[in-house]
Every structure is written in C-alpha cells, then in structure tokens.
C-alpha cells in the first residue's frame, strides 16, 4: 500500500475512534485490549447477546462481569473495544417539548398523606370513554405539551364497547364541580373548572404487544385543540437531556385516580412513593407468583412501595415521575403505568412500567407541530 493511502486509512480510523470515544473514559478489557467505558446499549456485540431472548450462559455471565465498568449516573456500562462501539444516540431535538415551563408543582408537600393536593400534579390527564352511550372515566395520562398527552397503548387500543372519547385536564377531585383550597381564615384559592378536550388522533407504538405481551406499551394522544396553560394545567417534563435519561433513579412518585384501601376508585387524585426494583429481581418475583411476563431491561422497569403498594386499576397509562433539579425543582416522567391491576398490592409483585427514556426519539418523531 502506498504511504499516502496508508496515512489516509490511519486518519479515518483515528477519526472514527475519536467520534466514538471523545466523551468516554478509557479502560482495559478482560483480554487486555484498550477500550472505552460506554453504556451497554452502545457496545453492539455485547448488547445483542444480552437482549437476545436466549438464556445467558455461565461463560457469558462471567464475561459480562469481567468487562463491567463504572460511570457516574449511568446504570449499565461495559468496557468495549472501539470497533464494537456505536456512536452516541443522536441528540433529541425537543422542538415540540417544553424544557422550562414543565414539571413545576404548585404545592410544597409537608405531609405524608397519599391524597395529592390541589395544584400539586397539574399535568395529570384523565381519559374518558364512551360505553353504552355513557361517558365513563378510565385510564390516566400526562400532558407533555399544549397538544399531546402521553399514555399507555392499552389505554388507547381498547375493546370495541369502550371507545376513547375525551381527555380531561385540570381535574383534582372528581366529586366536586370546583376544587378549592380553604385556609384557616376561610380564604379560598380555587382552580379553574376542569376541561374536557376532544381527541383529534392517536398513535400506538407499531410493535405494541407484538410479539411479546406488554412490550412497547406506549401511545400518544393528539388533542383537537391547543391547551392553554394555567395555574391548574401545565405539562410534565420528559427526560430530554442525555444526563437526565441516564440518571439512576431510586424513588418515584406515582399519581392517579386508582383503587383505594376500600377497593373503590378514588375521586381525589392520589399519589404514592415507589422504589425502583431491578428487572432481574422483578422477573423472579413474577415467576414465583405464577405470572408469565417477559420483561425487557431496555424498554421496561419495575417499582413497588411499602406493604405491597402498587399501581391499580384507574392508574393505567399514568405517569411515574421523579423530582429533578433542572433549572429549579422539576418533575420528570420516567415511566408509564403498564400493568396496573396485575397485582394491585395483593401479591408480592412489583408494578411494570414502560421506560419513557427509551422512547424519546419515538415520541418526538410522532409529534406534529
């Protein structure tokens, strides 16, 4: 090979390595090769083996343990040789998603009650369905901008006798026509009446439930009109930034009009704190309780509360969020309630949630201006 051509080839190789590794710390693999510590999803050879439905062999498990490395705020990282590293995921262009006016709670919580307070979770959406010519309440969802609601696919793809009809926003206590905070001096702070918004269209993930049950349980609802933000209606934040998507979250807040201790649906918006459960542990608990659900670390995660607290009927499609410091305290949605009611706190089984961070590109690509 001519010297000039050799230098060009070397330049290309060096450039490729710099693209793959410019923000990744160096490491040494178990075979003594130079590599870079990257999220496991970017090490395509390793990741293809891990996400395969075939059981991991003992040899592969030992190999994975050997190449494990550590990076702050990144959950799963491995030492990967440059030739097997995919470039970082393309930056999400959040032109349709709010980055500052979102996830702001209008209430500073000082108590431990499971009943949420007025103005506390102002992004909550209540999906309403027509059944036998009657409008009934069903799933939850979250407002993510002035035109879109994020929810679960199973809340949109419903039986023929249950048709998604409207989305209610600004609701808190369904038993009242007007929600108010009443203070000690009898002063009142009232929210605007909730609004029912018609639906223009819906988009369900094309691979929902196919071929694996509960997989890709995510959908978008496009409202028939722009929603005006108010003291009682604002969107939740989504994990747009890469550091927020890769954040290791240990505790979440689940909100919805779900089942109470009396096994009836709550009129008042409720909230509960849940702890993250590793997928491997979650899968084992499913098996121990006779539930055959094939979980994916990439697309799903699990969470549960104390004393078997879990998501229940009426909370399907609702958000699982965590408070983050993003130009001030903001609630960021990390999960969508996917299997509400599978255990509903009656079995020692965590709830299953769609991992929102894995669908950010899908969300943005399917949103119209």
UniProtKB/TrEMBL annotation:
Signal peptide region: 1-21
BP term (GO), one: protein maturation
Q: What is its main location?
A: secreted
**Can you say where in the cell this protein is located?**
Secreted
Recorded GO molecular functions are: metal ion binding; serine-type endopeptidase activity
Give EC number(s), comma-separated: 3.4.21.-
Q: Which GO terms describe its cellular component?
A: extracellular region
All copies of domain Peptidase S1, residue ranges:
109-368
EC class: hydrolase
Q: Which Pfam families match?
A: CLIP, Trypsin
Q: Which UniProt keywords apply?
A: Calcium, Disulfide bond, Glycoprotein, Hydrolase, Immunity, Innate immunity, Metal-binding, Protease, Secreted, Serine protease, Signal, Zymogen
PROSITE patterns named in the record? TRYPSIN_DOM, TRYPSIN_HIS, TRYPSIN_SER
Family note: Belongs to the peptidase S1 family. CLIP subfamily.
Q: What is known of its domains?
A: The clip domain consists of 35-55 residues which are 'knitted' together usually by 3 conserved disulfide bonds forming a clip-like compact structure.
Which protein is depicted? CLIP domain-containing serine protease
Q: Which organism is it from?
A: Anopheles darlingi (Mosquito)
